[in-house]
Amino acid sequence: MLSSEEADLSNSEAEGSADENVQTAGPQLYPGGPQLEPLKIDVKYEGLPPDIVLALRQVKQAAKTSLFHWKSFPIQVPEPISRSQSEGPRSSQSINPNELFVEPSFEELDRIALDSQGQLKKLTPSQIECIRQEGEFEVESVNFPGQVHRWRLCSLLQKGKGKTEESLQEGLALSLCLIIISAKNRFVSDNFSVRAGIRSLKEGLCQLLDALIGLPSLGSKGIMERLQEERAKYLVVELLCQSSDECDLDGLCHFIKDQVVRREKELEGKVNDDVDMIPPCPPIPLVFRTPKGSDVDLRLFDRQLMRRLSQILVGILERETKGWFLHFKEQHLAKFKDQLLSDADIEKETNLAVMDEYLRRVFRSILENPDIAAPGEGLGKLLVEQAKSVILMGRAMDNVHEMWNRTWLEKEKRLKINHPILSKIPAWMEERLLQAEAEFVAQHQWSAHEEALSLCRDHNLNQTLYFLSRDLIFMKEREPVLMKELQCLQEPTRTYRWYSHIWDPKKWVIHCLYQGQCEVIPTVVSNQTAPMTRPRSALREPTYFLEKFRTRTTSSRWLFWRWLNFIHCFYSWTNNAFYFFGYVIPWTSPISLQALISAEPFMADYELSQASSSLKMVNGSLCPQPSSTRQTLQSQLRLLWKHVSHERTSFKSKPSMAFLGNEISRHANWSWNYVLKGGLGSLFLCIFFPLTCLLVCCASLLLTIAAPIWMLVLVLGFHLFKILIYDLDSPELTEFSIQCQYFSPIILAVVWKIVILGIIQPIIAFLLGAIVCPILAAFVLLAGFLQYYARLAWDWIMLETLIKRLGRIPAVDTLFASRVAGPGLGSNFYYQITVPQALASLELRIEGEELRAYAQQMEKLIRKPQEDLRRFIQQVFQPFSATVTSTGIYLQLEKEAMILLQTLEDRVRRRTKELTLQLPADIRNRVRMPDWQLKLALHHGASMLCRHYPSRVLSRLSTPPTEFWEEKGLLVEDWPGLAALFFSEIFSPGFLCVLEDGETRFQLESHLDLSRFEVEATHFPEDMSSVMLTCHKRKNITIHSPYLHTDCFNPTVRPFLTRKTQTRKRTGPLNSRTKFETEKQKLMIPLPIPHPVLICALIYNRDNEESVPLESRICQHIMADLERSRPANAPPTDITSMDTDALSIMTSQQVSHHNLHSVTLNLVSPNEVSVNVTSHGDTRALRGYGTLV
Question: A Pfam family name for this chain (predicted)?
């Protein structure tokens, strides 16, 4: 038995299903529509318990009342609109899309060429005169009034007087180009000219001298970075602190100085965490005042605040783009079109109006938003002013660029009018326009600043106005002076280091890095091996570094630096050769004299001891290096016989299990060890080892004595290699890589620079400019005039003898005449349709939309029995983990649905084919309508949509109407906009572009009776504003959707410099490319205002003697943490990074250049940095060639 709760649940589910059933079986869609019947369910109760049987019967009863299947489901596609209307017999005629638009035929050449007797027509006097002037003639079209067919004669028959004069002008332009461009450039241009040859000769001589002796090579680095730093400081150098924030400013600056001292102590290991507690960071003043008393509010530099505000701003910026853009855009397009503006002006003014409206809405929302005002009063106004300043500065730049574009076009137009022949020379035009550009830049270099100042003054942006004026003063007055001063601070472009080995270990230099200080300690040599040689990882323990080389430095600053390098190289290499061949080989090598005469092994090298004082070892002392142990002759003999004894003892201690027995194996082992190993080995060591040591040591000593001679030859050869083959010492060589410009510097200087470019080039350029170009110009001029008069005579003869007597209007293209223009031949024409045709196509679209909505509605209705069954099983049996399977009742419903869906798909496909326009894509893209007809079509199309679309389409959709309009991007019930959208989808987006007067058009005829779509102009409504908004689109007008980035509100974003270097190239006859560079505006958007932390430090340093050490690396890191809104008492990771930087700074000048070891600093923990020292092998080899800095 079911419980009362289960029974109630079953009853409620049955009632719910019954309600759904009632709704489904309600009013039918069409007469004789779908009929349903309860679903038959066969349940077998045999062998089931009574309780299960009772439960199944109740479930079956509930299923009968809620589940059904379709008994009959007739599918009738919606009737056409013409049949549903009862307006007379004409309305019942359906529209055939294939006959709605008929393309006109352009085959009319026979009609215009033949007369009534079937003969070709003769040319008229006007056509003959047109041939005389242009070499072409026109014939009126018969089928298309107002259109003409244009025929062009071949050049053999007639060229035309106008074209002949154009050819003469081109010849004159070419002749002038050879004189005023090519000939002049052969003397004064930067490429292939006499001037270029003199410059190359000078450069070749300098390169030759530089390769031979070494000329000074200096350069300035970091000029632009220093200028930008001074520019930012100049903006705020006059600011004053508010009287209420003076204590905070002093506390902040003292805090920074205390933190600098504390971190220096941390490097020295003198910080006691229990005593030296880090105080909290004082507040940073964010409001200042100018000398005139105006407030400067910099609260937006708080990055944590900006991160919170950015999330709010993103929502505002996205929300304010919706609901107004399309209507506002179309309204202003119509407004500016009525003012008879050009398309470019319409686009500019409309985009500007759209952006202004968007900004107005955004700024209003920002000022009214309570979340923005919550952190502080006036934040909304600050955000608005910041965004306005960025936008206005950008508009100032756009205004200057637009001014230049207008100047460029006016200059180009004026040159073409005043110089009709010279303007045909591209190089001459480019040169004149670039001169005008240079003059414009010189006159308007500060126009962007001035324009931005004017706009900010109009919008009362006093804070931006102050910084802009300061920036303009700096760029005008301070930047040129600073540029000259910084350019005078020149440094050598390359530095060379030379290393000489120190012979005596007692004179090796030992550096101790301890408590942040690096110092040289006395060298102590110990006889004991070091227990610890690896550098310590803790910063509070001393670390020692060994320097075995003496370093000498040269640079490219002075004259004769190459010979100075030669001297240093010779000295360094010779000293290292003395050390290697005179000390290392004869005394410390494995085959040295000491290895021959000493009785015990010896250690040839030393290493540093890193042990602490607790191990009874002097810190940083030199200890013998076990890895450098050398065996002597006596020690090798002892080792040999120890090995023999060990082998014999090992053999005797093991039981004999050999193949030949114990006796033979014993004698064989004795012979192998004592005779072969011991005897012959000792004989070999006693004879050959001393002989090898003596020969090698003597040869080494001879090389040592002769080292100055053969080393001089070697260094001289290496020096000649750098001069003749590859210049390794070139100051411009930034890395040791293969680069072609450094191969054979002397050969390049003599052969290429001096001979070819310096001598041959100016001679050839002089001959071309003084002789060849004038002769060619005279020849071109003479040939042009001869060609002109000969062509005129030839055209007159052909016109009088052939064309007038035999000329006829052709019907086909031939060798002598071809049609170049006419109806259907070009691509600059459109197809015009009538208002009834447009309305008929819109009716087809409405029926198509209704058909698609009907198909979706019927598909959902057909699948309803399956959905009800799935829902019933899920509600009843889901607690028992039951699921629907494609068997039984569900399979039967699925088969019925598939049959109905296939029938629905076939009928919908057949009806869709009947409603589809069979127009090619190229014809659709050319369909247009005149202005008043387009307005009528949109107006009556909107009325048609309003009359039929809600009942035929919207009522069938499963979504609410508001969602439909939102998907279309239109306002609710914007029927004119929907009509315009459908027309643009039926034909193309260009359909909404009005067909202007004078544009070529051809009528698309219709073979249908469209009288029910006829409209009269008298029905034109008086208020057509809603229709006009959609009619004023233009092919070449682009209106952008408004957009604003959140960076416009953030003054801490990296500013971009609007200074541009524009490079133009001009080409001409016999003329190489010449570059012209012009400097553009120097306005930064946004302005590079420094952070308030730096402003406070500048104010403090200005008013106090004990200043904040701004040049300190530690201070810069502390201020960077404060700027990132991170407290200076942050976790020790910041301090560790600072310690690593400090260590690298302290040891870079003393340790990093040593070739004995490489030092690597690694972060081990927040308070430790490991120092890894890696040896580069035996450093006593021949060393000396300088390394690059």
Answer: Lips
